[in-house]
Amino acid sequence: MAVGRQTLRPKKRININEPDIAKEEKSAVLSVLKSKVFTSSSTHGGPNVQELERRLKKYIGTKYAVAVNSGTSALYCALAAATIGPNVEVALPSFTFVATANVLMALGARPLFVDINRDDYTISAEDLESRLSYSKRVKAVIPVHLYGYPAKMAEIIQISRDHDAKVIEDAAQSIGSTYNSKQTGSLGDCGCFSFYAAKVVMSGEGGAVVTKDDEMYERLIAIRNHGMTSPYMTRLLGLNFRMPEIEAAIAAVQIQKIPKLLKIRLRNASILRDELQNQPGIILPPVDGERKNNYYLFTISVAKRRDKLQKFLEMRGIDARVFYPLPVHKNPFYLENGFDKVSLPNTDWAAAHVLSLPVHPGLSEEEMKVIANEVKRGVRQIVIT
Ligand SMILES: Cc1ncc(COP(=O)(O)O)c(C=O)c1O
Predict the structure, then answer these.
(1) pLDDT tens across 18-50, in order?
(2) CA–centroid distance for 326 within its chain
(3) First to last CA, the chain
(4) 147 CA distance to ligand 1 middle (Å)
(5) 100 lines ligand 1 (CB under 6 A)
(6) Whole-angstrom Cα distance, residue 6 to residue 3?
(7) CB distance 196 to ligand 1 below 6 Å
(8) What is the value of pTM for the model shown?
(9) Does residue 312 line the site of ligand 1, with CB under 6 A?
C-alpha cells in the first residue's frame, strides 16, 4: 500500500485553481508601468480598460461591456442600473458565493432565496415560479451559473418576464460557458463576470458587466464613476468601481487565451470523467447537449463522509474544496436578518455532499490521472465501506 501511495502522490501540491500567467501578461503589465497611466477617472476609462471592454463584448457577443474592479462591483452596478433598491425583492439561489446576496443587502433590497436542482446545483425553475407567485415585489432574478455550469436560462427568463422581473446573470464562474451556443452573461438583461485570481480569466481582482441595453449601459458607466454623467455632474448614485489599468491589461490578454484555456480544462475534465464514470459512491457533474461547461471546477457529489474524503485528498497533496459548506441564508448575518425560517432542502443537501476537484490548465494529463486514482482509492476506503 505504501508503495502504491508513493507512486500515486503528486510530485507537487495540486491547487484547486491557478492563474495561467505567461510572457504576454508580464509584458502587458510592464507596458502599463512604462506608460505611467495607472487609471483614468474619465467616463470611458483608460486605454487598457477600453481595450478589455472591446475584446470582452466581442467574445461574449453583447453590444456593451463595462469593466469594474471586482465581480462584486459588477453585480452591484448591474443591480443598481436595474434600479434595485429598498422595498424591492430579488430572487436568487442561496447556494452561491455570498457576494450574490451581499450586494442586495448593500442596496437595501431583500433577497428571496430559491432552492436549486439537485442534479446541476443551479436555481430551480419550479421553485422560482412557486416563490414568485407569492411575492409582488420581485423586480429581478439572479441565476448563478455555479461551477461554470449554465442555469436553465430559457425557463428562468420566461418565468422572470411573466413576473416583470429583470434577469441579471451571475456569470462570475462561467466565462466561456454556453447555453444553446450563446455565451453565459449574454442571455439575460445583464451578465456579471469576476476576474478574481482563481477564476478562468483573472486579473487579481476585477470584473465586468455586459449588456445589450443602451439605457442600462449609460447607467452602468455613470454608476462605476460616482454617478457622474459628465465631469463633476452626479445625476445618480454611484461610487468608485473603476478598474485599474494594470488589472485591465492582464484581463485583456487573458480574454484572448480563453479558447486555449477552455480546451485544456475540458481535456482535464474528460480524463476525470472517463476514469471516474463507473465509480459507485459519487455523482459526476452533469452533461447536457445545450449547456456547455467551462469547467471552472469539476464538482462531484459524495454519497457520505464527504469531509473525510476531502481530508484524504488533502493529505495526498490534492486541494479538493467544498464550495460552499454553508448556504448563504445560514450565515450568522443572514440568520440575524430574518432568514432563519427559510427552508431549501436541495440546497442543504448540496452543501453537505459537494466536493470540487481541480481541472485548471496548469495540470498535466499525468496529474489528472493521479487525482482520479486518489479519488477512487479514497472513495473505496471511505465512502462505500
Ligand atoms: C458566484 C460568484 N458571484 C460573485 C462573486 C464575486 O466576485 P469577486 O470575488 O470578483 O468580487 C464570485 C467570486 O468570487 C462568485 O463565485
Answers:
(1) 999 999 999 999 999 999 999 999 999 999 999
(2) 17
(3) 18
(4) 11
(5) yes
(6) 5
(7) yes
(8) 0.97
(9) no
15 grid coordinates: 491547487
Place of cell 474528460: 270
CA 209 to ligand 1 center in whole angstroms? 13
C-alpha 73 to ligand 1 mean position (Å): 9
Residue found by looking up cell 458587466 in the block: 209
Determine the Cα–Cα distance for residues 283 and 354; give it in Å rounded to an integer: 9
User: Taking a C-beta distance cutoff of 8 angstroms, is the pair 138, 132 a contact?
Assistant: yes
Q: From the CB of 96, is ligand 1 less than 6 Å away?
A: yes
CB-based burial of residue 267 (10 Å sphere; 0-12 exposed, 13-18 middle, 19+ buried)? middle
Whether ligand 1 lies within 6 angstroms of the CB of 200 is answered as no
Name residue 40's amino acid.
S
200 CA to middle of ligand 1, Å?
12
DSSP string, 276-327: HTT-TTEEPPP-BTTEE---S-EEEEESS-HHHHHHHHHHTTB--B-S-SS-
Can you say whether residue 317 is alpha, beta or left, with left for phi > 0 and alpha for psi between -120 and 50 degrees? left
The C-alpha cell that represents 378 in the structure block: 479514497
313-347: per-residue pLDDT in tens? 999 999 999 999 999 999 999 999 999 999 999 99
How many Å apart are CA 385 and CA 371, to the nearest integer? 20
Angle at 191 between CA 298 and CA 58, to 5 degrees: 95
